[in-house]
Amino acid sequence: MLTLKERLNTRMLTKISVLSVLAFLIMYIEVPLWFTPEFLKIDLSDIPALIGAFALGPMAGVIIEFVKNILHLVIKGTVTMGVGELANFLIGSVLVYTASYIYHKNRTFKNAALGMIIGTIMMTIVASLSNYYFLIPFYAKLFGAPINAFVEMGAKVNKFVADYKTFILFAIVPFNLLKGTVVSLATIVLYKKISPILHK
User: Fold this and answer.
1) pTM (2 decimals)?
2) CATH class of 12-28+44-198
3) Suppose 23 and one of 30, 68, 119, 147 were both cysteines; which one would form an S-S bond, judging by CB atoms 3.0 to 4.6 Å apart?
């Protein structure tokens, strides 16, 4: 017979698993943007992770981010040799952990909103720095492509992109600010409806 602690752990794992699968399925829906090159598309798979982080704790959100990307690698496969999934995990985790950590300090709507605002800002900073110093150079090296190829793709759809720094400033930065805002607004709408189920 399972102890109370074991039953709670089983329930937690079940909830995390369901949210992870849901996040993985949402990853299939990608929306291109008018100011970013084709390889930068918005998906809303951070919504289940953020809801899970608010309901179950910051680390639950990080685990959901991790599992959804592992599922994506194993089931759908990758065209980026894992770099895209690594970026999705890293950047998504910053948003969900930061937002839920602030929320769990004092569980009010004001703190939730503050957490999502700061989480979006932190996500944008981490996305910008990681893309500039690591992700794009690493991706370029893996595929034997010059970094300038990414700049050229950005310049075709965004007149403000002229070099690598402006690519980060006018493509990566607004992309992540928009994504964080959309994910946050959707979470605000959905959380009240879903949280009673997660708190059972």
Assistant:
1) 0.91
2) mainly alpha
3) 68
